[in-house]
Each structure stands twice: as structure tokens, then as C-alpha cells.
Write the C-alpha cells for this entry.
Amino acid sequence: MARSTYSTVLDSLSKAEKGSALYQACIAVGSAYMVNIIRSPKTTVDRAKAYGNALTVIYSAIMDPQQCKTDDTLLAVWLLGLYELLLGVQNGADPVATPGWHSHNQALTELIRLRGSEQFTTRSGRNLFAVIFNNVETRALMSGQECKEALAWILQFHKYCEPSEYPVLRACIFSHHCARICGHIRALVDAGDLEEVLSSSPSILQDVDEVERATHPLSHEEVITDYVVEPPMTPYTPPKHAYPSYVGVHVLQSNFRMRLSYAVFGFLDNACRAPSCTPQQKMVFSRYRRRCIEEIQALSDKVSRISAVLPDIQSCEPVNQGKDATDGLGHNEPQVGESPDAIKARSKEPHERSTRAVEVCLDFQRPVDGKFTLLFNHTNSGMSVVRFRFGDETRAR
């Protein structure tokens, strides 16, 4: 989210007592990370042992009526989700949301419910909510089920927050609406009725076109509606003075907006397969899908430039997601069912030396089969945009 927001996480980690739920969760995450660095029988055994210990202690904390509401327990479960995410990363393949990741994020939602309105009365509580809310909305868009309490939580956040927190609150609102549309798309596609997908396309596309202006449930609050979220294709202009959460807010917004563009890209591919889809509709959808690719590229480029606002980001040559990724959806766009070569959007010319490298690693030509969303994958040399596979929520570990 932002350095000012995550400072609460760092403060809690620095105070974690040995043997506590938060401490054991940190050990588990470190062990999972080491397996990705050094693959050996010992690191694998250490990882499994650390995870088992963490589960035991965290389960005990969750079952305790007092400990289940503490910041440490919430963070411990959040870290277990990070552990599962590290497990889902395999070289040369899409990161996978494991069943454990789904279950831990479901637990996060339950813990936020248990913590009630009291969690919003302190700055640290609101910071933690902003961190966890990202996970809650990500799971919602992947499952196709909107988190019904999200709007009530946003209202509680607004009730207690300070003016300096309005950008973070606005980012939460925007993320929710992006996730809500993505979830609706997911539910339609999962139902498997192509005609229903086609008939729903006008309302879906209208929602997408209006998402930057969506401010419900705070549409009546001028301090929120005056906060402008720029559409993806709006040229980026660096701020003269960046507020503390500037980078995190804009990266979060760009992340969820990219996910929305990718969801629409796949949604329209399904709409084109409907038996009643006319040639004219296919032409319109083709143009819109091309726009989705351009939006993903523009948002990736924007993130690379926004990241340069941080003074400690290392300079490196950026990646220019040029027109080559969209050429495949131009005049010679293949018909549904054909299998053209994969496309990767890569650098042609550098922009500014201050921006980070960003590579869009997506095959835009292949039909979006299966369940995916997008992630920023951070590396030492820069960032890449990769697909995040939903995995199977019901499969046993």
C-alpha cells in the first residue's frame, strides 16, 4: 500500500515476542523464502516444520476470544497468506493461489468482522485494515463473490480517519469497485452461459467506463468525490509534491485497474464465442480488447514512473510496453479458435533513467482459458506483470 501504512506492520513485527503467533508466522515465511533460494531436503523439512508450528500457535490465538482480535493475530494470518504465495511461485510458471492462500484470506475476512468498529478508532488499526483489505478484495474478485461487508467497513474507516488518510480511503473505494466488477465477470464466466455473457456485456462495459468515478458508499462526501482517479490512458504527470502515501495509493489503484482490464479482456473473448454474437459486435469487442491491452501497458508504464518518486528505488532502464503487443489485435486479428504465436510486450527504447523496469509477460493472443488475475512481481532489477492463477479452493493440501 504505502510506506506510511506499512510502518504499522513493521512496528508490530519488531515487537513480536519469541514463540508468539506473529513470531512463528515470520519464521514460516522466512523458511518458505529460503526454499525458493536454496532447494534442498533440509530447507524443505525446515519449511514444513516452521509452518506446522505457526499453524498450531495461530489456531490457538484464533480460538481465544481476546487474542483473536489483536493486531498480532491478524498479521500472523496475513503472513501465512504470504507463506502460501511463496509456495505458489514456481520458476517459469504462473504464480498460483494455493488452497491454503484462499483459506487464510477467508480467515482474514472473518477476523476483520470479529474486530468490529473498534479497529477503525486508531491510526494503526486503520493502517492494518488498509493492508488486509487488499487481500480481501483480491479474494473476492477471484471467487466471484463480492465481500458484502466491504461498504460498511469503508464507512467505518471514513468515520474515524483523518484528512491525511483520504487518499488511502479513496484507493480502497476504487479497489472495491474494480473487484466488484471483476467478481461479476468471474461469476458470469464460471456459469458457462455464453449468451448470458453476451447479453451482460453492455452493462459490464458501462460499469468499467464509469469505474474511476464510482465513489459509493461515500458519493455524498465532497472530500472523496473531489479526489480524482485518472483513467488508464491519461498521460502521467509527476506531482510537484507527493503526499506520504502517494506511491502506495497509485500502485494499488493501478494494480486493481489492470486486473479489471484483464478481466474484461477475457470476458469479451467469451462474449465473442456466443452463437448469437454478430460480426458487428465482434468488431466492437475486438476494438475494446485492444484497448484493454493498451490500458495494461499504460498502467504498467505509469507504475514504473510512479515508483521513481521513492528516493531509494534503484535506477535502471525501464521497459517500454510498445505497440507490438497490440499489433496482434489489429486488422489481422485471428478468428476465435486460431493459435497465433505468443506475444510479449518488451522494451524498445528507454524513457527515463529514474524509472524502474517493468515487463508485461502475457500472451494476449491465446484465449484466457482458466481462472487468472494479474500481479506485479517485484524483483531486484524491476517489476513484471504476470498472471496469478486462482488454483483450486477445494483441493486438499
Remarks:
- The chain has two domains: 1-87, 88-389.
